[in-house]
Amino acid sequence: MTFLIYFIIIMALPIIIQMYLKNTYNKHLKIPASSGMTGAQAARKVLDENGLYNVSIEPVKGQLSDHYDPSSKVVRLSENNYYGSSIAAVSVATHEVGHAVQDAEDYAFLRVRHKLVPVANAGSKFSFFFILAGMLFASTNMLLLGIIFFAAAVLFQVVTLPVEFNASSRALTSMVGSGLIRNDEEGSAKKVLNAAALTYVAATVIAIVELLRFVLMFVGMRNND
C-alpha cells in the first residue's frame, strides 16, 4: 500500500496535474476576454500602470512557455498568449507581469529565490550522484551529503510557491482593476491561474516526498550499522 501511494504521488500526480492544466487552459483559450485586448496589450497596459516602461514584451515559441526574465527585464509570452485575446491569454500574461512587478518592488520571496538559484542548481546536479553512491557503497556519509544537496533543491521549490501565488494574486487584481476582464469573468481567470499554480504545488509535494524517502533510507542505514 505504501509503495502504491508513493507511485501515485511520484508518477501519476504530475500527469494528472498537467492534463488538468492543459484542459483548463485550452478551454479558456477559446473564451474571449471582454476587453478584446491581446495578452501582449494587457501586459503592456499593466506594466505601464506600474511604471515599468523599461520592461519589454516578446513572443516566444511553445505552449505555456511564458516567463519573466529578470536579467533582461523581458516578459516573454507564448504565441497563443501574446497574440490571443482570450481569458487564458490575458490571465497568463498578467501573471508574468506580476513577476516583473515583484522584481521592481524587490519582493522578499523573489529575492530569496534568486539567491537560491546557484545552490538549487548544485543540489539538482550533485544530489543523486552522492545518493546513488551512498546506496551502492552503503556509505551513510555520502548519502547524507546527497540529502543535503537535494534539500537545497527542495528549498528552492518551496520558496517558489509564495512567489507564484503572489504573482497570480497580483494578476487577478490587475485584470479587474485595469478593466481587462469584467467581474463576472474573474472566476474563469482564477481557474486558469489556479491550474497553473497546481503544477508548482505538485512539483514541491513530489520533491518533499522524495526527500523524506531519502531521509528514511539514511535513518535505516544508520540503524543497521
Molecular structure report:
It comes from Cytobacillus purgationiresistens. InterPro entries: Zn_peptidase_2. Helices cover 75% and strands 6% of the residues. A 3-stranded mixed sheet has the order 1-3-2. The radius of gyration is 20 Å and the shape is elongated.
Briefly summarize what is shown.
The chain has helices at about 1-30, 40-50, 80-85, 85-105, 110-135, 140-175, 185-225; strands spanning about 55-60, 65-70, 75-80.
Features:
transmembrane helix; three-stranded mixed beta sheet; 6% strand; 7 helices; 225 residues; protease; elongated; mainly alpha
Based on secondary structure, the structural category is: mainly alpha
Mean pLDDT, to the nearest integer, reads 94
| Spatial order of strands in the largest sheet | 1-3-2
- Please summarize the sheet with the most strands: 3 strands, mixed
Cα-to-Cα separation, first versus last residue:
28 Å
Pfam family, one: Zn_peptidase_2
GO molecular function: peptidase activity
Organism: Cytobacillus purgationiresistens
Keywords: Hydrolase, Membrane, Protease, Transmembrane, Transmembrane helix
Layout: helices, strands, pairs:
Elements: H1 2-29, H2 39-49, E1 56-60, E2 67-69, E3 74-78, H3 79-83, H4 87-105, H5 108-136, H6 140-177, H7 186-224
Parallel strand pairs: 1-3
Antiparallel strand pairs: 2-3
Helix pairs in contact: 1-7, 2-4, 4-6, 4-7, 5-6, 6-7
GO biological process, one term: proteolysis
GO molecular function: peptidase activity
Protein name: Zn-dependent membrane protease YugP
